[in-house]
Amino acid sequence: MHSSYVVFDTETTGMPPGARIIEIGAIKVIDNKIVDTFELLLNPECDIPFHVIRVHGIDNSMVANEPIAAAVLPAFMDWVGDLPLVGHNVSFDAAMLASELWRADMRINKNNTYCTLSASRKLLERKSNSLSDLTRDLNLPNQVSHRALADAENTFHLLQHIEKEYGAELCWSKMGNGAPLSGFKPSQVHLPKRFHALREAAENRTSLHIDYRLANGRNVAIKIHPRLIYNSGKRTILEAKCDTSGITKTYLLDSILSIDIYQ
């Protein structure tokens, strides 16, 4: 049971670990009172898919001149400190935050995480446990949905409601076991031996050259800075910064023909 914590939410380009954060919203609660808020748009270093823009309304023009995650995450994590992190479906937001910290080569802290979605499913008898539906059905203070700070506020009011109805001790016991944020970092993908140099470059923050087959069948030589390797469906994806363009891109592992670490 906690009286001091941070409620947070993210808006993203898609699903972790490959997606990027485009907005963070958070509320700092000390002794059960809101004492501060955090709200920031981020440049995801990639285009935001149209179907995602339709959900939260954040388009490419709104984030074009905003800082990238690596530039602002240190300030956000300092702001959070060692307080527990609360979210609605917190595993999603924790995975997004941990992935961005991993990309930025930042330490992923062990802040305990707790989930109001878990408590809602176990304690509230509702057909839908989505945050927007619960906010409406329980007549909670209604904020705009699918923007980070507004959803953090909605989550805070939901937490207060559950605590009031069922008691703080039961509420927090149903919000999970406090899994540490560090446990949500991208899992290691099994790689054939010929791709081990990609993982070593990602871990050591070094560059290498690859021969890559484009979708049109043409082969190109590219110098890249690997950052993240993850599975998407049945395919393994390499996320890396292209040395020529300076843009972070994704590459299909199956399309990497050879790797040269000595050029």
CATH superfamily of the largest domain: Ribonuclease H-like superfamily/Ribonuclease H
Report the count of strand segments: 10
* Arithmetic mean of pLDDT: 93
Task: Tell me the structural class.
Answer: alpha+beta
Poorly predicted ranges: none
Helix content: 25-40%
What's the oligomerization state? single chain
Q: Which features characterize this protein?
A:
263 residues, alpha+beta, Nucleotidyltransferase, domain 5, SH3 type barrels, 2 domains, 5-stranded mixed sheet, 5-stranded antiparallel sheet, 9 helices, 10 strands, 27% strand
Question: Care to describe what's here?
Answer:
The protein is of the alpha+beta class. The protein has two domains: 5-184, 2-Layer Sandwich (Nucleotidyltransferase, domain 5); 193-260, Roll (SH3 type barrels). The protein has helices spanning 50-56, 60-63, 69-80, 90-103, 116-123, 131-137, 148-166, 168-173, 196-204, and strands at 5-12, 21-30, 33-41, 85-87, 113-115, 208-213, 219-232, 235-242, 248-252, 256-260. The strands form two sheets. A five-stranded mixed beta sheet has the order 3-2-1-4-5, with helices on both faces. A five-stranded antiparallel beta sheet has the order 9-8-7-6-10. Strand 8 (235-242) and strand 9 form a beta hairpin. It is elongated and about 65 Å long. The protein starts with a strand and ends with a strand.
